[in-house]
Amino acid sequence: MTEIGIEPQEIPLAPERETGFSKPLLRTEGEPPRRYGAPVFGATALLLLVAGLGAGGWRHYQAEREVAATAQQARSMAPEVRVATVRASDSKMRVTLPATTAAFEAANIFARTSGYIDKRYVDIGDHVKAGTLLAEIVAPEIDHQIAEARATLAQSQGTLHQTQASRELAEVTNARDSNLVKQGWLTAQQGDNDRLTLRAQQAAEGAAQSNIAAQEAQIRVLEQQKAYQRVVAPFDGVITQRAIDNGSLVQSGSTFMFTLMHANVIRTQVFVPQDEAFGVEPGVQAVVRVPEMPDRAFSGKVTRIATALQPGSRTLLTEIDVPNPDGALQPGTYCTVELFIPRRTPSMIVPADAVVFDENGLHVAVVRDGRVDLRKISIARDFGTEVEVHDGVQPGDQVILSPMLNLAEDSRVTVRKPQTS
Fold first, then answer.
1. What is the side-by-side strand order in the sheet with 249-250?
2. Which residue from 91, 96, 134, 298 could staple onto 288, CB 3.0 to 4.6 Å apart?
3. How many structural domains comprise the chain?
């Protein structure tokens, strides 16, 4: 086979573009075409990646700087807070307690003798004086018993006279016979009879005297029962209840007749809690108020106190006497009693907005030299907008009102100046 030689020949390319090359691009037949776009794209992507990483790193650096600056600013910044000044409690604490009025004196009058009501002289609402006749009871059998007792007394007195005569005779006989016995004219037996007879007569005289004393006492009992037929008022007051009328049958000691109350002075009993009871004593000022009389206050004083607290309620029974000359206060009225009790233990008043309750318990934030001092407190009484505390703060301390939750110990704060109008 003869080889046919093929001479290489130029293949025309596309018309020359303005690519910046001065010579036309030539390639031989069978040579693959050259591609210049991939290296350029890779270089561009690498440059973009490096630029993105650089920009991200710069932004991260800037963010860290801003966070650090903010933290430093927060550490150095002193937030502005509102404060209130702690004040000492008053020397007297006012305690308001519910109570019920009662008459200074009150008596339920019962019949002391049996019989029928002959006449009733008073009714409900009548004002009476001590000794005023309220009612009369008729009991004829008492008169008969008195007459019988007096007759028996007369019999006993006659027996006494007879016994006294016998005793005198026995004395004379014994005195005469005793000398004859000594001289031997009478026997010793006769002497003993005379002596013992005298002693028997003396004993009989004593018995007769005792019988007379018993009869006299019986007569006094019957006369007292007769006196009880006149029912009188034991003290000045007002008849508040009546349970009998003319002709009513009454039994001694069991029939209720009247209720008499002395209301010129009103007595009120209250039970003072333990935390206020240690300052209560006779003479403490009190004011009684009735809801139905809002424009009037009745002044009084503590007159009596119990010496021991009630075991169940830990309260002290206290009585207040209130003058009531015009009778405006009526017994049995619901009222409130204000006691002005001297304070025995010092305490402070703190605004309720300053108290914080969290996992550390109750505390307040006190500002000292521009820094926060957290102090634990114990509340004695809650008045709503204010609380009374016994420890933790002192009068004059400035406590932060509505403190922030993130307020820490020893953090710096700035006290807000009060606004002036």
1. 230-232, 133-138, 115-120, 249-250
2. 298
3. 3
Instruction: Give 178-214 pLDDT, tens digit per residue.
Output: 888 888 888 888 888 888 998 999 999 999 999 999 9
Residue 232, phi then psi, degrees to nearest 5: -120, 160
The range of the structural domain enclosing residue 300 comes to 262-342
Q: Which residues pair with 80 in a beta bridge?
A: 414
> Domain check: are 330 and 287 in the same one?
yes
Helix (H) / strand (E) containing 80: strand 80-81
In order of 201, 371, 412, the CA distances from 397 in angstroms are 99, 13, 17
Do 150 and 213 lie in a common domain?
yes
Nearest C-alpha neighbor of 133 from the set 243, 248, 226, 231: 231
* Per-residue model confidence as pLDDT tens digits over 68-112: 766 655 555 678 888 989 988 888 888 999 999 999 999 999 999
Give me the pLDDT at residue 245, please. Answer: 94
Instruction: Give the pLDDT confidence of 306-344 residue by residue, as tens digits.
Output: 989 999 999 999 999 999 998 899 999 999 999 998 887
Q: Are 270 and 316 in contact (CB under 8 A)?
A: no
Do residues 351 and 327 share a domain? no
Predicted TM-score (pTM) of the model is 0.57
Distance of CA 383 to the CA centre of its chain: 15
pLDDT digit string, tens, across residues 216-237: 999 999 999 899 999 999 999 9
Q: In this structure, which amino acid lies at residue 228? A: Y
Say whether both 177 and 219 belong to one domain: yes
- Domain boundary among the residues 228, 246, 272 is at 228
Name the residue among 244, 249, 231, 250 with its Cα closest to residue 124.
Answer: 244
CA distance linking residue 190 with residue 183, whole number of Å: 13
Q: What is the DSSP string of 233-247?
A: -SSSEEEEEE---TT
| Residues 287 and 297 sit within 8 Å (Cβ to Cβ) | yes
